Amino acid sequence: MSSGRLTVLAGPTAVGKGSVAAYIREHVPTVWLSVSVTTRAPRPDEVNGVHYHFVDDGAFESMRAAGELLEWAVVHGAAKYGTPKGPVLEALARGRSPLLEIDLDGARQVRASMPEALFVFLEPPNWEELVRRLVGRGTETAAERERRLETARVELAAAQEFDVRIVNDDVERAARELVSLMDSPEPDVRR
């Protein structure tokens, strides 16, 4: 891995950001994955400290007020998500290549404070596939799905803000493309 460059992965809900990050976590140990904090409840397969740090609203607000978050947002009008700043800066200082899996608002905040990072947008092959993935998860109520799909429309429209776009038509292929970009000293951006 080229050392010490931050990569930000964002994209719409249900596009598979978590699946791509999980593949990288399992197969590419040289990539340091940031673990976000969130106020939402864990899904059945999620482990605290591995997938997210699950905290209550008070703890989240304390972190935010103390300036301990690199970025944060209220996602889908419901839960708060954020990236602890300290571990990311420590990874960079050690020459690691951190990967942040975050939402659009978070990516914009990171771009404002760390414009040298590589910003990658993960997109679905098409809208129908995105809807199929969201419904297939079975983790949201009908109202939550509609809210997430409305957010996804806005997020998809922002794809041109990113340096690189990767279509997630296959998790392994998308993960390998992302790692290849992270390995490149000067990735071919704006494609």
Low-confidence stretches: none
Supply the helix-strand structural class.
alpha/beta
Largest sheet: 5 strands, parallel
Shape: globular
- Give the class-level CATH name: Alpha Beta
Rounded average pLDDT: 90
Which strand order spans the largest sheet, edge to edge or round the barrel? 2-7-1-8-9
Order of helices and strands: EHEEEHEEHEHEHHEH
Integer-rounded radius of gyration: 16 Å
User: How much of the sequence is in beta strands?
Assistant: 15-25%
Distance between the termini: 22 Å
Tally of individual domains: 1
Q: Your description of this structure?
A:
By secondary structure, this protein is of the alpha/beta class. It has one domain: P-loop containing nucleotide triphosphate hydrolases (Rossmann fold, 3-Layer(aba) Sandwich), CATH 3.40.50. Helices cover 41% and strands 20% of the residues. The protein has seven helices and nine strands. The strands form two sheets. The protein has a five-stranded parallel sheet with strand order 2-7-1-8-9, sandwiched between helices. A four-stranded mixed sheet has the order 4-3-6-5. Strand 5 (69-75) and strand 6 form a beta hairpin. It starts with 6 loop residues before the first strand and ends in an 8-residue tail after the last helix. The relative contact order is 0.23.
